[in-house]
Amino acid sequence: MILLFIIFLFGISGWMFERKMNPELFRLGKRGLWDGVWGSAVTLTTVGYGDKAPVAKLGKATALILMFGGLLFISGLTASIASSLTLNQLTNNPDGFNEFKDRALGAIDKSGTENYLLKHFFKNIKTYSNVSLGLEELDKGEIEAFLYDDQF
């Protein structure tokens, strides 16, 4: 709905600025309004057919705002959808992070990782004095995962 609002707002604004200076492309009346909305949609979607181009200064300014604002809006919308889908995938995935709460895990003794695991109710944590020992235990199958964070 927001996208349609933007298309109509900038389409009508562009038409109002262009109809007198560019009447062959932005006609008068309802058809002219449609020309403005069409030009706005083509500009916003970056299709750029080239059939509608502003010539008035305010028409060009309106189109410029639409181009850059639309780019930011569409990329933000895409990022939001991708983030939501990723979060849903992680939350609904039976092999997700929480599945490891009952499994044997390894971490460095007194590390941020060990604190995190204890704080979030992970039950079977084995601690090691260094990474090599933890990885050896992982290789032997004594633990199912080894978690390590390197703090700077």
Helix content: 55-70%
The total tally of domains equals 2
- Identify the CATH architecture of the largest domain: Orthogonal Bundle
Oligomer: single chain
- Give the termini distance in whole angstroms: 46 Å
What structural class results from the helix and strand content? mainly alpha
Radius of gyration: 29 Å
Q: Give the count of helical stretches.
A: 5
CATH class type of the largest domain: Mainly Alpha
Low-confidence runs of at least 5 consecutive residues: none
**Global shape:** rod-shaped
What does this structure look like?
Strand 1, helix 4 and strand 2 (124-128) form a beta-alpha-beta unit. The chain has helices at residues 2-18, 29-44, 57-92, 112-119, 131-140, and strands spanning 104-108, 124-128, 145-146. The protein starts with a helix and ends in a 6-residue tail after the last strand. Helices cover 57% and strands 8% of the residues. Keywords: Membrane, Transmembrane, Transmembrane helix.
Question: What's a quick, concise take on this entry?
Answer:
The chain has 152 residues and is mostly helical. It has helices at 2-18, 29-44, 57-92, 112-119, 131-140, and strands at 104-108, 124-128, 145-146.
What are the SSEs and their pairings?
Elements: H1 2-18, H2 29-44, H3 57-92, E1 104-108, H4 112-119, E2 124-128, H5 131-140, E3 145-146
Parallel strand pairs: 1-2, 1-3
Helix pairs in contact: 1-2, 1-3
